[in-house]
Write a structure and sequence with these properties.
heterodimer; A: alpha+beta; Ubiquitin-like (UB roll); DNA polymerase, domain 1; five-stranded mixed sheet; B: Aldehyde Oxidoreductase, domain 4; 20 helices; binds FE2/S2 (inorganic) cluster
Chain lengths: 159, 806
């Protein structure tokens, strides 16, 4: 059995006692009950599991819990409290989600994009979202939402 | 507005407004409740051992080592289920063949018995304390397989000498079926001046909703009640099929819950083995049993879509007027009959082959074939994309044969706007439409007139540019029960709604449809809001739980609004009618003098009125009440059975460029002009069109389920099966024209499948047009870069007229 691993998840200090093979996404979902982070594939392609690790987007199905020692993890549940984050609000306003399954990963990915590129073009957005698959929206409204979310974040929020 | 539209509609209210979705907050904040998010106290985990072979005798299964593995609670095989009297998975549609005989309907055991018939066929289930332990133990099960040759392609499976899946299905044939007047068609061909011919494949697809399937079975040892949580588009249908046919449980002891469901696209309609396994096993182990599919598992266990091989011929006079259509289709059913599979290449395909045209004689022959592949059933559009793809590619061939512009040959053959109701030669009667208008809208938005200049310009950049048109008709709003029954459906296809008005005037709507992305919680709330004059925020929509909703047939076939919404309108009418009685009493007026609009009951021609909330309160606090004639309470249920199918239609135009160096297709512009009848929420409708287009484009350019000759799925993960990414798709230009459905109270037709129906033909006609400088080249979907690159390489560049300009 592995040694305990400590990290911060959505601002809360946690210690994991899990089997060495446990993936970060399994820990978040099964142990911490943070089921907003989803699993859509087993080949690291869909991005439904995307969270921020030390401020950068990471597919939590590609990372073992053991690798998260000391890390700061942010999941969709921690992105906002009460009011929607500007990126979440933009997804709602522009109908950037249908079934909502890809949505947490999309939003977390988009927030990271805007941190790195505050005014992304349509091309930048489509390029960036290469690792996030949505089967419902055809991406049209996701692109519009990310454009609007980027503008809103520039105005009010550091992300 | 149709004649029987309720007066309640006239107040406008929420109808026609792009109300932002009520369901979004929970999804955006990670608070949705998808099945895999649920965990039940004391839960165990199931892992299914699946066949690695496409076709094999199932000899001994030895579970001794696996049973001793850590954490294992139980292991069951097909023999255990058979001993317990568990039934096979039922098929919901019986097709009668061209000789009047019922289709061949072999048993579909929940866990394989005697033989396995596709890679992924479940052989045993391990139930353990954790999923990892269940999976680890499954690897210790020893199964002896006697591997057999496989039949994979449907066109090969019917040849002499092919491997046989079932003794009762000679030549692997499920049925041979036909529709239409063959002699009239033959006669028309005999006198035709021009004939267009085409062979084509409609490629097999994997639906791939982003949420993999999952199921939790739970048994209450005290009451004997079962609960199944499952990723379903139609929980009542699952309760019916699993309860009545598989586990022999009465409805009142079986609750089926489909909570938030992450997309379906047809693949979550069917009753699957895993649902029965976890439900049955939960009583055996007396603990909840949870199963969640991996994506790789989904590729070999979710029903797949399409997979037709067809030959088609169109007879024309010298002016390009269609005289007759002849179609021969071989449809792959896969290894077993999935719930609605037999209906897809017949009732939902052949009947659509009149399309938007006046073709007077049509004959379609369909042969459905078993193969050693995953079962095939409805996938977004279900039969209608296959019909549209075949017809619209054939019409483009016809345009070349008749030397007519593709738009012109379509206009010459469109059903005239004054011809409705229009009876086609293949059973359907279209109630309304205007195909000229949608085509004109699409061509204008697509700037058809400027296309040749853009093509010439692209040639100077080394690009082959093409434009493709497709028009379509679909039969939605499934379905009039009597018609469906006559065609073989084993269930009714009406819908239900319960409108429960609470004492303070807020409303809960219970609908038998199910939302898994379509936004019912908003659209249906808009119906109630506008019908009762309350705000959208005061309406809660409940769906997906058989213990709460009276009944329902679920969501597929673009039926939710046309059928489910109509049931809502009927229930609203009943609420208003009762409210009028209560208001008449309070206002001391004759009931006939009380009118209702904008949430107010008013005595005509006076200022005496009562608000809807006052009436609701009075219904529950009946102190001053017509108690002798009116029951207390304000809670009404309606069942609605549609009078006909609805017929959405439209025209899609694709403009693409193929890079001559790489073969890569870029979609420069995609225009969709659709007619969905009345639109309740334009924002949601546009989103539905976008999503459908993405799947249609995916089929045309990227996606294909490819099996090798041994029946191994080569495209079994997102690494190999190309799902469209954001960078593969353009912004879409969408527009709508409105001709109202004439036979439902809302005038709505349905919008969920249109994009997937029109897009493949539009894209592939554009590809053929782009390749036209190289010759008359036939390309099957998907038109991948590799395929196009080879075509371009094999045609000498000197044949390309534009080459001179470089
Ligand atoms: S679940 Fe992590 S990329 Fe799909
Ligand atoms: S909203 Fe359903 S997968 Fe993106």
């Amino acid at each position: 059995m592995s040694a305990p691993v400590s990290m911060t998840v959505n601002g809360r200090k946690v210690t994991a006692n899990v089997e060495p093979r446990t993936l970060l996404v399994q820990y978040l979902r099964d142990q911490l009950g943070l089921t907003g982070t989803h699993v859509g594939c087993d080949t690291s392609q869909c991005g439904a599991c995307l969270v921020h690790v030390d401020g950068k987007s990471v597919k939590s199905c590609t990372m073992l819990v053991a690798q998260a020692e000391g890390a700061e993890i942010l999941t969709i549940e921690g992105l906002s409290s009460g009011e929607l984050h500007p990126m979440q609000a933009a997804f709602k306003e522009h109908h950037g989600l249908q079934c909502g399954f890809c949505t947490p990963g999309m939003v977390m990915s988009a927030v990271d994009l805007v941190k790195q590129n505050p005014a992304p073009t349509e091309h930048d957005i489509r390029d960036w979202l290469e690792g996030n698959i949505c089967r419902c929206t055809g991406y049209h409204n996701i692109v519009k939402a990310v454009e609007a979310g980027a503008k809103a974040m520039g105005g009010s929020h550091a992300g | 507005m149709p004649d029987d539209a309720p007066a309640a509609l006239s107040n406008g209210g929420g109808i026609g407004a792009s109300v932002r979705r009520k369901e979004d907050f929970r999804f955006l904040t990670g608070q949705g409740h998808f099945t895999d998010d649920l965990n039940r106290p004391g839960q165990t985990h199931a892992y299914l051992l699946r066949s690695p072979h496409a076709h094999a005798r199932l000899d001994a299964i030895d579970t001794t080592r696996a049973l001793a593995a850590p954490g294992v609670v139980a292991i069951f095989t097909g023999a255990d289920l058979a001993a317990a009297g568990v039934g096979g998975l039922p098929c919901g549609w019986l097709i009668t063949d061209k000789h009047g005989k019922p289709m061949v309907e072999p048993p579909h055991p929940v866990l394989a018995q005697g033989k396995v018939r596709h890679v992924g066929d479940p052989v045993a289930v391990v139930i353990a304390e954790s999923r990892d332990e269940a999976q680890d133990a499954a690897e210790l099960i020893d199964v002896s397989y006697g591997v057999l040759p496989a039949a994979v392609e449907a066109t090969d499976a019917i040849k002499p000498g092919a491997a046989q899946l079932f003794d009762e299905a000679p030549a692997n044939t499920c049925y041979e079926w036909e529709i239409g007047d063959k002699s009239a068609v033959d006669a028309a061909f005999a006198k035709a001046k021009l004939v267009a011919k085409l062979d084509l494949i409609n490629n097999r697809l994997v639906a791939n909703p982003m949420e993999p399937r999952a199921a939790i079975g739970e048994y209450d040892t005290g009451s004997g009640d079962y609960t199944l949580y499952t990723t379903s588009q139609n929980p009542h249908v699952i309760r019916l099929l699993m309860g009545a046919f598989v586990l022999h449980l009465p409805e009142h002891k079986l609750r089926v819950v489909a909570p938030d469901v992450g997309g379906g696209f047809g693949s979550k309609i069917y009753h699957y083995a895993e649902e029965a396994i976890v439900t049955w096993a939960s009583a055996k182990v007396k603990r909840p049993v949870k199963w969640t599919s991996d994506r790789s598992e989904a590729f070999i266990s979710d029903a797949q879509g399409r997979d037709h091989a067809s030959h088609a011929e169109l007879a024309m006079d010298e002016n390009g007027k269609f005289l007759a259509l002849r179609v021969d289709t071989v449809a792959n059913m896969g290894a077993y009959l999935s719930t609605f599979a037999p209906a897809i290449p017949t009732i939902l395909y052949a009947t659509l082959l009149a399309g938007t045209y006046t073709t007077p004689a049509i004959h379609v022959a369909v042969r459905a074939v078993f193969t050693n592949t995953v079962p095939v059933d409805a996938y977004r559009g279900a039969g209608r994309p296959e019909a549209t793809y075949l017809l619209e590619r054939l019409v483009d061939v016809a345009a070349r044969v008749a030397k007519l512009d593709p738009a012109e040959i379509r206009r010459r053959n469109f059903i005239p706007t004054d011809a409705y109701p229009y009876q086609t030669p293949v059973a359907l009667q279209y109630d309304s439409g205007d195909y000229f208008k949608t085509l004109e809208m699409a061509l204008k938005t697509a700037d058809r007139d400027g296309f040749e200049a853009r093509r010439a310009d692209a040639a100077t950049r080394g690009k082959l540019r093409g434009m493709g048109i497709a028009t379509y008709i679909e039969a939605c709003g499934i379905a009039p029960s009597a018609v469906a029954g006559a065609l073989g459906a084993r269930a009714g296809l009406y819908e239900t709604a319960e409108v429960r008005v609470h004492p303070t005037g807020s409303v809960t709507l219970f609908t038998g449809t199910h939302s898994h992305g379509q936004g019912h919680e908003t659209t249906m709330a808009q119906l109630v809001a506008s019908g009762l004059g309350v705000s959208v925020d005061q309406v809660e929509v409940v769906h997906g739980d058989t213990s709460k909703i009276p009944f329902g047939m679920g969501t597929y076939g673009s039926r939710s609004l046309a059928v489910g919404g109509s049931a809502v309108m009927k229930a609203i009418d009943k609420v208003v009618a009762k409210g009028r009685k209560i208001a008449a009493h309070l206002l001391e007026a004759a009931e006939a003098d009380v009118e209702f609009s904008d949430g107010t009951f008013r005595v005509s021609g006076t200022d005496r009125s009562k608000s809807f909330a006052e009436i609701a309160f009075t219904a529950y606090v009946p102190h001053n009440y017509p108690i002798d004639t009116v029951e207390p309470g304000l809670d009404e249920t309606a069942f609605y059975d549609p009078k006909n199918f609805t017929y959405p239609s439209g025209a899609h135009v694709a403009e693409i460029e193929i890079d001559r160096e790489t073969g890569v297709v870029e979609i420069v512009k995609f225009t969709a002009a659709d007619d969905f009848g009345r639109i309740i929420n334009p924002m949601i409708v546009e989103g539905q069109v976008h999503g459908g287009l993405a799947q249609g484009i995916g089929q045309a350019l990227y996606e294909s389920a490819i099996y090798d000759k041994d029946g191994q799925l080569l495209t079994g993960s997102f690494m190999d099966y190309c799902m469209p990414r954001a960078a593969n798709l353009p912004m879409f230009d969408v527009a709508t024209n409105v001709t109202l459905c004439t036979h439902n109270p809302l005038g709505v037709k349905g919008c969920g499948e249109a994009g997937a129906i029109g897009a493949p033909a539009a894209i592939m006609n554009a590809v053929a047009d782009a390749l036209s400088p190289l010759g008359d080249i036939r390309v099957d979907m998907p038109a991948t870069a590799a395929k196009l690159w080879h075509i371009i390489q094999s045609h000498p560049a000197t044949h390309i007229p534009a080459q001179a300009a470089e």
